[in-house]
Amino acid sequence: MNPHLDRFNKALRRLQEALDAPAGDLVRDASIQRFEFTFELAWKAIKNTATAEGLECLSPRSCLKLAFGQGWIDEEPIWLSMLDDRNRASHTYDERLAEQLYGRLPDYLNPFRRLLEMLENKSA
């Protein structure tokens, strides 16, 4: 079993909880932090699944490319956008960028869900 799948699933549920909460600065910041955790666990789940199948990817970008090539994700542009957002959120803090990212987070839920379902089906 892929140890990252359970953690990915929990992180995704926590991200959804944050996005369901009434908007405010604290909720925005918590949502962004939860997005970062969810993204990290997503690419690590891809890496773990790839390794189990004799494939290799070493970085988030290379794992996303591999997942797209394997058909595990079907929207490479949105995943690359998520990677860019994760990188910006992790390395800089700007109020305007935080608001923009917070506005995009709901669009990331379904790609996360589809990946989780795909990887769970592969490990079943």
Describe the structure.
With 124 residues, the protein is mostly helical. The protein has a single domain (3-123), classed as Four Helix Bundle (Hemerythrin (Met), subunit A). It has 5 helices and no strands. Helix 2 packs across helix 3. It is globular, with a radius of gyration of 14 Å. The relative contact order is 0.17.
Topology (SSEs and partners):
Elements: H1 3-20, H2 25-52, H3 60-70, H4 76-91, H5 95-123
Helix/strand class? mainly alpha
Rg on CA atoms, Å: 14 Å
Q: How many DSSP E strands?
A: 0
Q: Main sheet?
A: none
Classify the beta-strand content into a percent band: under 5%
Secondary-structure element sequence?
A: HHHHH
Sum up the overall morphology in one term.
Answer: globular
Helix content: over 70%
Unreliable stretches (pLDDT < 50, length at least 5) are none
CATH superfamily membership: Nucleotidyltransferases  domain 2
Q: How many helices? A: 5
Would you give the CATH topology? Answer: Four Helix Bundle (Hemerythrin (Met), subunit A)
CATH class: Mainly Alpha
Tell me, rounded to a whole number, the average pLDDT.
Answer: 93
Give the tally of structural domains: 1
Span from first to last CA? Answer: 8 Å
In brief:
With 124 residues, this protein is mainly α.
Keywords:
0% strand, Four Helix Bundle (Hemerythrin (Met), subunit A), 124 residues, 5 helices, mainly alpha
